[in-house]
Amino acid sequence: MKEQTRSRIYLVAIFAVFFGPLFFAMWLFYVPNSWMNSKTQNHGALIEPAKPLDDFKITSIDGDVWDKQKFMGKWTLLYVGDEHCDLYCEASLFKMRQVRLSLGRDRQRVQGKYLGIDNKNNKQSFNDIIKNYPDMKVSWFKIDNTPNSLSTYDLHKNVIYIIDPLGNLMMHYSRDATSKGIKKDLKRLLKVSKIG
Q1: Residue spans per domain, the chain
Q2: Which of 80, 88, 168, 180 could be stapled to 50 by a disulfide with Cβ–Cβ 3.0 to 4.6 Å?
Q3: Are 159 and 174 in contact (CB under 8 A)?
């Protein structure tokens, strides 16, 4: 009787050694696991499908012209601002600057842009942003020049966007997003991307 029990135990052990990993792998593949999803979770919201920027041209208050080419070849952190840069705006611009600086050598692959919408042509806010964020391209546009562009791409004010080097809007962050989360997403994109 003992010999028969021992034989069964050996048979079960051999079965577990050979087929256990297979069943475990199938379970991992087919059963949704929140702990697995959390490891690959983005901190920003993906824009699905990504929205390619069409050919467009808008002229800023200072005479600079923005078109699709301004967003090609590099990863772009774009902040869409209001007529005044308030505390949330300042915090977002600070996050963008810190994220870019923290990327080390890869910071050359990323550019920061501020697109301001201005009803009153507030030169003071414009000049303050240029002074405080010299590495960021800053342009403000009169509101009557931008509604088509904004509505076409469904851009919202006080939001940070990521645009890939091919000119596709692909991710956005609310004003409560952390610089740590943005950095993690961007580092992952830069690691897997061969462009920009």
Answers
A1: 2-37, 42-192
A2: 168
A3: yes
